């Protein structure tokens, strides 16, 4: 639709994870000309844009407002915002609705623009105390965390959003202290048929599979895939031609492949690969939450030949050659060009991959060698404070 390819960068206005100076800039979405890196549009600087989804027709963008104080009221949860896009890539705010949870961190939309789906991450550090009655009839104090949930939102004819029509609250915990005290869904992903919605819950070490009823606007869970204990599954990517998906684990710097049955929604684990070098050593800095490497994002090249995973802490991109049956062969691990690479994405042609280095505040451009999958830092970059997500349109 656009005359020129546009880069959309989502940023946090608040210092949610201690990775940047909260007073150094603002949030919202910034649109850049992909050739010149000229700023085309800038909207809603008060929105903590943790994730974006571009409608298939290119006319709308949907974004999470990653917070817990929507409307300035603590405890009000987060929001989901909608925007229209004109022919020059300029954005106009349409509306924002409650995410029906706290800290919504990921969003996706179906290809027909019927529904938006979001993951509400919640917060494991903020708790409330309530009294509960035991089976013996006595009373004790118990701590309660924010809900982790996935939410479904109807999209109106004008591209704006309606309030949440379906919500699935995820419960449980896993082995790691703090990070896995409670459920933390970190992404939602549609399978290629768009009949299923998958959710990676890094708090419970599970990948949930839901059957979508588009007529009723509901989700029905049909499968829950257990992952390695303490691994923290974070993001999911489907292979473009094979019945295989890939999921990176935040807490143990690994990436896993799974077979996926598009008729039943069932999964099976295939292979595990490590995303850092054999001589990797964590940093000796107890004040840095990324002193121990955490994977962040993963993307598959449109050819289906290569997979890329970003490492926060090691500040690198791991590249793999993909073959049948989910096999992954490490090609190289290269510097991300900055610090804390939270998000990665390909341009529309698939010739370049852009790395969102959050702490250093740069978007770094890498050339993809389609013959071997290797990456070359072009030296081109966009400077943005607190960037966390990137999309193209």
UniProtKB/TrEMBL annotation:
It comes from the Bacteria. GO terms for molecular function: 6-phosphogluconolactonase activity. InterPro entries: Cycloisomerase_2 (IPR050282), Haem_d1_sf (IPR011048), Lactonase_7-beta_prop (IPR019405), WD40/YVTN_repeat-like_dom_sf (IPR015943). Pfam families: Lactonase. Belongs to the cycloisomerase 2 family. This is 6-phosphogluconolactonase. It comes from Enterococcus phoeniculicola ATCC BAA-412.
């Amino acid at each position: 639709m656009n005359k020129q390819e546009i880069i959309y960068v989502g940023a946090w206005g608040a210092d949610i994870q201690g990775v940047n100076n909260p007073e150094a800039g603002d949030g919202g979405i910034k649109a850049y000309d992909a050739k010149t890196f000229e700023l085309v549009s800038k909207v809603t600087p008060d929105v903590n844009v943790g994730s974006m989804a571009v409608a298939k027709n290119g006319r709308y963008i949907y974004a999470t407002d990653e917070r817990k104080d929507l409307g300035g009221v603590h405890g009000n949860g987060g929001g989901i915002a909608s925007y229209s896009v004109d022919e020059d890539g300029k954005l106009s705010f349409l509306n924002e609705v409650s995410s029906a949870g706290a800290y919504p961190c990921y969003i996706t939309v179906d290809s027909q623009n019927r529904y938006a789906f979001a993951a509400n991450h919640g917060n494991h550090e903020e708790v409330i105390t309530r009294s509960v009655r035991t089976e013996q009839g006595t009373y004790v104090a118990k701590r309660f965390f924010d809900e982790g949930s996935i939410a479904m939102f109807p999209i109106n004819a004008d591209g704006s959003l309606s309030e949440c029509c379906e919500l699935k609250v995820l419960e449980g915990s896993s082995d790691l202290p703090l990070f896995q005290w409670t459920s933390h869904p970190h992404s939602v992903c549609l399978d290629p048929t768009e009949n299923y919605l998958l959710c990676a819950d890094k708090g419970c070490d599970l990948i949930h599979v839901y059957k979508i009823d588009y007529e009723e606007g509901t989700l029905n869970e049909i499968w829950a895939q257990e992952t390695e204990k303490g691994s923290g599954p974070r993001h999911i990517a489907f292979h473009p031609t094979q019945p295989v998906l890939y999921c990176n684990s935040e807490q143990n710097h690994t990436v896993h492949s799974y077979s996926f049955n598009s008729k039943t929604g069932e999964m099976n684990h295939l292979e595990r690969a490590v995303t850092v070098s054999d001589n990797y050593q964590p940093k000796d800095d107890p004040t840095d939450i990324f002193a121990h490497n955490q994977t962040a994002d993963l993307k598959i090249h449109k050819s289906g030949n290569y997979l890329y995973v970003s490492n926060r802490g090691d500040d690198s991109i791991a590249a793999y050659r993909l073959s049948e049956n989910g096999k992954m062969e490490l090609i190289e691990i290269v510097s991300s060009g900055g610090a804390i690479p939270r998000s990665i994405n390909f341009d529309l042609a698939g010739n370049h991959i852009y790395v969102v280095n959050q702490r250093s505040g740069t978007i770094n451009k890498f050339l993809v060698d389609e013959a071997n999958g290797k990456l070359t830092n072009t030296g081109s970059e966009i400077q943005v404070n607190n960037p966390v997500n990137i999309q193209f349109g």
